[in-house]
Design a protein that fits this description.
alpha+beta, 8-stranded antiparallel sheet, Dna Ligase, domain 1, elongated, single chain, about 160 residues
Amino acid sequence: MKKKIAIGAALIAILLVAGGLWYTRPQSFWAVTGMDRDTITGASGYVIESFYENGTPEQQVWEIEGLTPGQEGYEALLGLLEGSTYRAHLSNLTAPFSDSQPGSERWVQLSFAADGALFSVQIPVSQTMTIPLPDSYGYLRYDASNPQLQAELFQYIQANGEKS
């Protein structure tokens, strides 16, 4: 009897580990977001940099707007996102990430118009991408394989966008 319980427990443990490995497997940007590249009609983004100057908190914002498929800027932006793979956090299974800005000094948000709807992607820290849950205040977290993803997107938008 004890042997059957041990075998059953071992099988359950193996299934849980296998499920966790499958859930956190590397995926493309398109698989993670569920968007289809061919349905996107436009993209925009902004970055916020917070800092202290002379003892006062300051912010600078850069925006890039009006990117459409086929434009060089649009393809460059998607190239940065497609150049990385993304792994889901196991914490997504228990409680979606709900902190709106987890203490980062830099914040990147990209918005895509796809199938007549708006889809946003946020990169609040260097290697983490968050995707909002529909009809919720929570986000799903994904780690990017590129540790410089946020910095590269920040530099791209800063160089090609407008400071506001």
